[in-house]
Design a protein that fits this description.
With 324 residues, the protein is α/β, with parallel strands linked by helices. It has helices at residues 37-48, 60-73, 89-102, 129-151, 184-205, 231-240, 244-247, 249-256, 283-297, 299-323; strands at residues 2-5, 12-15, 28-32, 52-57, 80-83, 108-111, 155-160, 211-217, 267-269, 272-273. The chain starts with a strand and ends with a helix.
Length: 324
């Protein structure tokens, strides 16, 4: 594929190319929400192209079933299962630790897991579950894996968002956890907007580090995603939805194509850069969400502690030099 500047606006256009089947040989890819739907289809395709795939799943039985499918797709590719519940920061930290203890390389991180919830639920950390799983978990996981991504540069981070961000999606700054009023759509569209704001801020912060960060809408995809909706809605949705394999195409494209190896901070639909809503282009909001996410996930206090440690180290070094 080739990306060329478009004449009409600042977006870019992508032309098709054929990928060689084992183009991902030697690449290590971690995918969240790989037990079903788009995540599973993405994992299968990347394994088929030769990648060593790590499936991050919360449920052992579903995870093992997915692992068997991915290994079959990849011709016994020896994919791995990493059991993590993204609704728990402790589980994410334990999973990242386990990954880092056994891998020194991560070429592609695909933050794909996500869910809508009809009724408000709260995670063990006390946060509204849709915001926590769809955004905060990936914010934390990405931070914990950044050192290995940096060491593996050139590397790629892909955040699966949704067109939902542009369908009334807004940040409820005064009630981020939707305690005052909870409805399925505002909760979901806020979390998908957060995916894009996270992408643009992270891309900005990682400029020059050899890591690209992009986001996407996979299309309307026939997955377990509509579970819990009215049966008539599910039936209508299926009539217009594409398959999980088709829905995985843009994630696979962003993970593999040479044409996007230096492209960062963009939102893709059908493998092409696409305009986001005005709210998703608000850089002040992206910075604000970053700061809040740092606080909510505990990353901020760790950075402060690290700085303090560094300063204390420098002070004791100075004292030693003085005494010498
Ligand atoms: N389907 C669509 O039309 C559509 C449209 C736009 C965007 N998307 C986005 O596409 C992504 C994938 O969704 P999908 O359509 O493939 O739906 P899906 O089939 O329901 O897959 C969602 C995945 O997320 C996982 N997940 C949910 N909560 C988790 C948790 N606490 N810890 C770990 N994993 C968790 C699920 O695991 P379990 O198997 O354990 O439940 C599952 O593997 C989501 O981010 C969604 O927002 C989908």
């Amino acid at each position: 594929m080739r990306i060329q500047p478009s004449n009409s606006n600042s977006e870019t256009m992508v032309s098709q190319e054929t990928n060689s089947p084992k183009e991902m040989s030697g690449k290590v890819v971690l995918i969240t929400g790989a037990s079903s739907g788009i995540g599973l289809a993405t994992a299968c395709e990347l394994a088929r192209r030769g990648a060593h795939v790590i499936l991050l799943c919360r449920d052992k039985t579903r995870g093992e079933a997915a692992l068997a499918k991915v290994n079959e797709a990849g011709g016994n590719a020896e994919a791995e299962l990493l059991l993590v519940d993204l609704a728990s920061f402790a589980s994410i930290r334990a999973g990242a630790k386990q990954f880092l203890a056994t891998h020194s390389k991560l070429d592609v991180l695909i933050n794909n897991a996500g869910l809508p919830l009809k009724d408000r639920r709260v995670t063990v950390d006390g946060y509204e579950e849709v915001f926590a799983v769809n955004h905060l978990s990936h914010f934390l996981l990405t931070h914990l894996l950044l050192p290995v991504l940096k060491a593996s540069a050139p590397a790629r981070i892909i955040n699966v968002s949704s067109l939902a961000h542009a369908m009334g999606g807004k940040m409820h700054w005064d009630d981020l956890m939707l305690e005052k009023s909870y409805k399925r759509w505002p909760a979901y569209s806020q979390s998908k907007l957060a995916n894009i704001l996270f992408t643009i801020e992270l891309a900005k912060r990682l400029k020059g580090e050899g890591i690209t960060v992009n986001t996407l809408h996979p299309g309307l995809v026939d997955t377990r995603f509509t579970r819990g909706h009215h049966p008539i809605f599910q039936k209508l949705f299926r009539m217009v939805a594409i398959s999980a394999e088709q829905g995985a195409q843009t994630s696979v494209y962003l993970a593999t194509s040479k044409d996007v190896e230096n492209v960062t901070g963009l939102y893709f639909v059908k493998m092409k850069p696409h305009k986001t809503s005005a709210r998703a282009r608000n850089e002040a909001d992206a910075a604000r969400l970053w700061k809040m996410s740092e606080k909510l996930t505990g990353i901020a206090s760790e950075s402060v502690a690290k700085e303090a440690q560094k300063e204390a180290g420098m002070e004791s070094e100075k004292a030693l030099l003085k005494a010498a």
